[in-house]
């Protein structure tokens, strides 16, 4: 604990030393240092720079007209008040009523103060007459009472009661503790025992003051814990409080703090007209000493009277960071990039070149378009790019554009205002672009985004701003967008499915992930990695690796991982080619679809869906097979059926294929959970290729 320096100013140096001893007894060890002065000795004091508080007797101040002006501006001053303990005045209560008595002290004012003090303590049975050196004795009185000044009693007085020096009142001690931020003084036994010895008429008010002071100390403690700066300015434009955070933000040294004039601390605010015109300022950005800060000023009114201002100060960057952390806490999902470039396993030259280019792109803030078939690791690469960028300490949020309907995707991405639509929260909702502020937003399967959403996305990329659904306010965002697709974007642009301007905006930086069949040298490495990851103790025979290298890998790395997972169920020490899933033996989804050149019907499939004719046939046949046993089937069930033959088909691809089949009138897609049904035309086509 830092030692606080107190200067005590009293009329009597001996009394001051007595009060000093009391303070040392009540305050924690080494918490205070007290220097005692009388008006004459104080006039010779030169070094006042270390004084944290003045404890001043009003008689000392009254003795010199210039004393009050010599106290440095801004240093707190506490009125030194004293009182008698009950045990020191108990004998006075037993004195016969009407007894005449001299009250002897240093001067007449001190005498009157002592008399009034005793009257407050209900000593009404004695008729006191003030007496100080130089005063005439009005009557021949043989009895005197003095508060620690027996040497001043006239020699003619034979009976003297020396009450001793009065004690500092509990309220005075509390006020000293409050001004010096020494919080634990009245939590201990010493102070409680001390305060109980003052059962005067003011005792209840002292207790009330004690509770009020304790509350004020708690509030001061709260101010110190706040992570925003708080400065209090009174109605005379003087600073009456300032917390630790404000000192830090404003870079206030000890000299400035002692001056405590607002101009030395807040030169960027003008309070000169504050008494007549209350200053009100909300979230104004101010640059002070090369630091951008957000400043808010609130007028203080108590009982309809203007009492000053509270100034709230916050570093702009700290405020941004707090908002970012709050966004992450609210989001509680998808805000961390889990993968790094070191997690990408490859011996392939193609992959090495792709990763090298991606690392260079990570240093920029431009949008990136990652292309590649399903299962090639597009999200892993996007995550690695984020972690290698300057945005790595900020959010990384991934969302699949094909996983939700258009309206839901719009509200997720851009947020909405309260009451924007039926079922909307009254408080509204922040969008993922706002959550991802300063970070990265990964948009997978971007090709499934509707034209209207593409327009809004283009605005974000160009203007760096969003507008919530149902809102009118423009919100600035700083988000890096990484988009991914497994489709031929140029073809989709020609077909009108993707806006040309959006494509060129996204295609500023493009990365293409090679399919697994083009990086066969990585297959053994990846296979061994998945075997270790899934803790499979079996060994893979050489013919398995050969089969892996010749397999088309329609599902790429995801299909390879599913294949390794299949080995977990075999419970064998050595996995051979005969143990491979059925898809390895027939060469893909359907052996009949390996070549589309064999017959006219298969050429028709190639024309309908030129990129993946095997996928179209698989989906059409699977729907027909379920229809034959009076069952409907939807996208998720089709995905599970593909996984049974170790092929991964994303829902987005299944949706596109089904849409093509519907356009060809080979299937009928029912609403809700009705699934799909093969039409007569579709059945006729299937029969034509048998």
TrEMBL record:
Keywords: ATP-binding, DNA-binding, Nucleotide-binding
PROSITE patterns: SIGMA54_INTERACT_1, SIGMA54_INTERACT_2, SIGMA54_INTERACT_4
Residue ranges of every copy of the Sigma-54 factor interaction domain listed in the record: 344-569
Coiled coil: none
GO MF annotation, one: ATP binding
DNA-binding among keywords: yes
GO biological process entries: regulation of DNA-templated transcription
SUPFAM superfamilies: P-loop containing nucleoside triphosphate hydrolases (SSF52540)
Residues that span the membrane, as ranges: none
Designated name of the protein: Transcriptional regulator containing PAS, AAA-type ATPase, and DNA-binding Fis domains
Species: Dethiosulfatibacter aminovorans DSM 17477
